[in-house]
UniProtKB/TrEMBL annotation:
Residues 1-22 form the signal peptide. One of its GO terms (molecular function) is cysteine-type peptidase activity. InterPro entries: Papain-like_cys_pep_sf, Pept_asp_AS, Pept_cys_AS, Pept_his_AS, Peptidase_C1A, Peptidase_C1A_C, Peptidase_C1A_papain-like, Prot_inhib_I29. It comes from Trypanosoma vivax (strain Y486). This is Cysteine peptidase, Clan CA, family C1,Cathepsin L-like. Belongs to the peptidase C1 family. The lineage of its organism: Eukaryota, Discoba, Euglenozoa, Kinetoplastea, Metakinetoplastina. GO terms for biological process: proteolysis.
């Protein structure tokens, strides 16, 4: 998806950490910081050897966090729910989509013609009631499904329908074009919904998410409530002004990013992001051009205990994280 962002066409539109706990910073003594991390996130390890190993991993991650912080004066990095994972473990569990996004680069795409005109200086679809609460993909590499479903939820609501939480599990279990917890691609998900499920998207209430443990239950194709319908999808040219204009006019947009830097992010605007390969699906819900620096507002799927209550802000206009 390096060259394009995604957007769903909606039938109705025709075209269209517990709050009381303080943020743990990376600049304190490592042992008490590790103890606070374990308490905050409920970590325990089976053996003394495993605990010693995780402490070393944690120390390496705090060193990396300080490096990111030095390169990003407008952002903070430190202890996150992933601070006891090695970069390899984190990549395998949480941003394993690189091969899917790379394989999609040569696809023939339908590029939408974004109408001329200047986008507003700032947009935030959360304030317009078009964004559901932050969700949690858990140990399943299903970011692609959360990105696609978030896109549909947002544009369904932006088109005048009730904001409805829709089912990622439907895609994880039933979408044979993708690979469940092994990664996927948002275009594939949209195509499966239209061609194989008659455009129907089920509600989360009727088909709840159960793949937090990394499992992929068998598809249950019947007995679910339809919460939205779609007729197709288009791609937006890989141009940040075009993406902003389309987002402002139509609602949240599914995009892929390089999420390497996300592992230790805790707040602020990222201005120096690893930008090597697309590996993670997220949802653009807004932007602010009046801020210095200007930024995108991105909804992630790693629970509200990560980042800014589940969100990250990334500098706009410089292709940070390959947005």
């Amino acid at each position: 998806m390096h060259a394009h962002a995604l957007v769903t066409l909606l039938a109705a539109a025709v075209s269209v950490a517990p709050a009381a706990m303080a943020v743990l910073r990376a600049d304190g003594p490592v042992e008490p910081l590790f103890a606070a991390f374990k308490q905050k996130y409920g970590r325990s390890y089976g053996t003394a050897a495993e605990e010693a190993f995780r402490l070393r991993v944690f120390e390496d991650n705090m060193r990396r966090s300080r490096m990111y912080a030095a390169a990003n004066p407008h952002a903070t990095f430190g202890v996150t729910p992933f601070s006891d994972l090695t970069p390899e473990e984190f990549r395998t569990r949480y941003h394993n989509g690189e091969r899917h996004f790379e394989a999609a680069r040569g696809r023939v795409r339908t590029l939408v013609q974004v109408p001329p005109g200047k986008a507003p200086a700032a947009v935030d679809w959360r304030r317009k009631g078009a964004v559901t609460p932050v969700k949690d993909q858990g140990r399943c590499g299903s970011c692609w499904s959360f990105s696609a479903i978030g896109n549909i939820e947002g544009q369904w609501a932006a088109a005048g329908n009730p904001l409805t939480s829709l089912s990622e599990q439907m895609l994880v279990s039933c979408d044979f074009k993708d690979n469940g917890c092994g990664g996927g691609f948002m275009d594939n998900a949209f195509e499966w919904i239209v061609k194989e499920n008659s455009g129907k998207v089920y509600t989360e209430k009727s088909y709840p998410y159960v793949s937090e443990d990394g499992s992929k239950p068998f598809c249950i194709p019947y007995g679910h409530e339809v919460g939205a319908t779609i007729t197709g999808h288009v791609d937006i040219p890989h141009d940040e002004d075009a993406i902003a204009k389309y987002l402002a006019d139509n609602g949240p947009v599914a995009v892929a990013v390089d999420a390497t830097t996300f592992m230790s992010y805790s707040g602020g605007v990222v201005t120096s992001c690893t930008s090597e390969a697309l590996n993670h699906g997220v949802l653009l819900v807004g932007y602010n051009d009046s801020s210095k620096p200007p930024y995108w507002i991105i909804k992630n799927s790693w629970s509200s205990s990560w980042g800014e209550k589940g969100y990250i802000r990334i500098e706009k206009g410089t292709n940070q994280c390959l947005v």
